[in-house]
Amino acid sequence: MINPPLSSQNDESPGPKSPPLVDRLERGLVTLVFIGMLVTGTAQIVNRYAIPLPISRTEMLLPNMFIVLVFLSLAMTFRYRENINVNLVVDSLSGTVRRVYVILVWLLAIGFLIYLAYSAIKVAQFQIRIDAVTNVGLPAALLTASVPLGCFLSIIRIVQVEILPAWRGTR
Description:
Elements: H1 20-50, H2 56-79, H3 88-92, H4 95-129, H5 140-144, H6 146-168
Helix pairs in contact: 1-2, 2-6, 4-6
């Protein structure tokens, strides 16, 4: 079951209100990476078919940008409640038991995100120590940094959209 958006307000962004800085950071980074992917993909097609001169570096840059986009947009799926959710157990519970169950499930998800972010930070530290670069020549730690950033933004959204409403009994 896909959860419906939380907002019934008539504004341009469905979902709960959040600090403007977090919203701008989230939207700005996702938009920037998406535009970069669009420009890179278009350049790849034009250079391969219109001008028979493929740019080899763009072929590897596009998958790297996709990885960054996935982790940054993860938080947006939580904000807009567009994540796929199976509510078989939750629907059979009621009252306080349901609230406790929902909070515990989301705390487990936060625990996983914290572990994922910690592991990515350790990998990035190792990549910095050995001066690792991607096959495009960018520092590998820059690509890896999208994982903890996406996890951090996701944790904010989970608390905001799932845990606090369950705690207050509004969900």
